Amino acid sequence: MPSRLLYRFRFAGLSLRIYLIIEVDRSNLQAYVFLHIYEYNHFSIPGGIAVNTKRFIFLFAFALGAIVASSPAFAHHSTAEYDMTSSTTVKGTVTKFEWTNPHAYITIESKDDKGAVVEWTAELASLGMLARINWKRDTVKVGDEITISGNRAKNGKAHMRLEKITFANGQELSGRVG
Amino acid sequence: MLRNRLKGSILTGAALLLLFPVIFALTANPSKAAGAPDLTGVWLIDHFQPALFPKGTAPPFTAWGQAKFKEADTQVNDPNLACLPHGIPRLMFVPLPMEVFQVPDKVMIYQEAGNQLRQIHLNRDHKKDLDPTYNGDSVGKWEGDTLVVDTIGFNEVTWLDHAGLPHTGALHVAERIHRVDHNTLVDDFTIEDPKAYSKPWTASQTYHLKPGWEIAEYVCDNNKYVYHEK
Fold first, then answer.
1. Which of A127, A141, B76, B158 stands the most exposed, by the fewest C-beta atoms within 10 Å?
2. Residue B23: strand, helix, or coil
3. How many CA atoms lie within 13 A of B176 on its CB side?
4. pLDDT tens digit sequence for B14-67
């Protein structure tokens, strides 16, 4: 996914960056153009335009939201390996939940556009910090149908840094600490 | 009769006088030395500093320091990827809680990451001919409400921050740790290492008190990132 730094500026003591992200979803023949205003660690304001290339309909879905999430706890490595400028969402069945330090991991099996099974892993914070945001060793169980959202690994692997999970009943639980 | 009563009250008074220090010692906060400011509690950094010098800024590197910093890659050669200790000052920048204990002759800092315990020795000078270690040898003294800490005796394995600021065994870290209000602790650092930096530079970290928090067990036993693919 190409993401390009458009503009970098300082405002109110924050160093802000605006990224342009273009994402093409071939299955729905849609192209998305996102603008993210982004400040390391503190917040991002995502907005975008979805272009249905099949019907030439432009959907101005400029969802403006400030996500306040300060001080993510990265105990032993930086966020450098993740694309912190965009979010990926995948639905699937839990095959493994590793309640371990320095990070917990969720593994799910999902199906891609062609129906092929893809194994996704999501990295979470450390157990102490997760416990402080209401996670438990049995929050996720093998066989659960869940949706995971987070920042995908830059190397393109089916791996992400978890932002939140959505349970089958629609209930959400944040994986962000701070 | 009167004489006996007088004798009795003098004896009682004397006994009380003798017992006062014992009574005070029993009722005082046992977690800190008498008279010292209280820094005890669980603290969490207020803001994660992934790099002490954000892009576009830099410490006063020497040529050696600059070259060494260029070799640092957070995804490949960060010593912490192998769950090695953070060392000082990086241990103080970790985005996980730490508990401060004050015991006779020492201030102890118990960092959740890896359950590392840092000792600051209060009533002694640096030992002679120190073995190089990850955390070095920290000695401290109180200047008013400020804990003034001096640390030397480092090995050359650790980074000074999460971005890979280098150092040599000549590293000298001076800290001034003080409570600015009940809920806020500040640690001001001065970093000196003539081989890596042409002059001393400073950094600061603020912490917030986390009442009711307990340090969790943290054993780094599932580290999937020891060997990274580039």
1. A141
2. helix
3. 10
4. 554 555 555 445 444 444 455 789 999 999 999 999 999 998 999 999 999 999
Which residues of chain B make contact with A81, given a CB cutoff of 8 A?
75, 228
Cα–Cα distance between B179 and B183 in angstroms, integer?
8
The least confident of A97-111, A149-163, B26-40, B52-66 is B26-40
What are the chain A neighbours of B224 within 8 Å (beta carbons)? 103, 105
Contacts of A40 in chain B (CB under 8 A): 50, 54
Chain B partners within 8 Å of A102 (Cβ): 83, 113, 218, 220, 222-223
**Mean pLDDT of the region B149-167:** 97
Residue A87 and residue B218: Cα distance in Å, rounded?
28
Residue A53 at interface with chain B, using a CB cutoff of 8 Å: no
Find the length of chain B: 230
Q: How far is CA B31 from CA A94, B40, B106, B115, in A?
A: 46, 8, 11, 20
**Which of A5, A101, A136 to mutate: most B Cβ within 10 Å?**
A101
Interface check for B24 against chain A (CB to CB < 8 A): the answer is no
- Decide if B131 touches A, using CB distance below 8 A: no
Domains and CATH numbers, chain A: 3-68 (no CATH), 79-174 (2.40.50.140)
CATH of the domain spanning B41-209, picked from 3.40.50.300, 1.20.1440.230, 2.170.150.20, 2.40.128.20: 2.40.128.20
Residue A130 pLDDT exceeds 70: yes
A101 touches chain B (CB under 8 A): yes
Chain A touched by B193 (CB under 8 Å) = no
Nearest-CA distance B25 → chain A (Å): 35
Please state the domain extents for chain B.
1-30, 41-209
| Residue closest to A163 by CA, chosen among A60, A96, A79, A55 | A79
Helix segments in chain A, DSSP class H: 127-132
- pLDDT at position A42 over 60: no
pLDDT digit string, tens, across residues B105-120 = 999 999 999 999 999 9
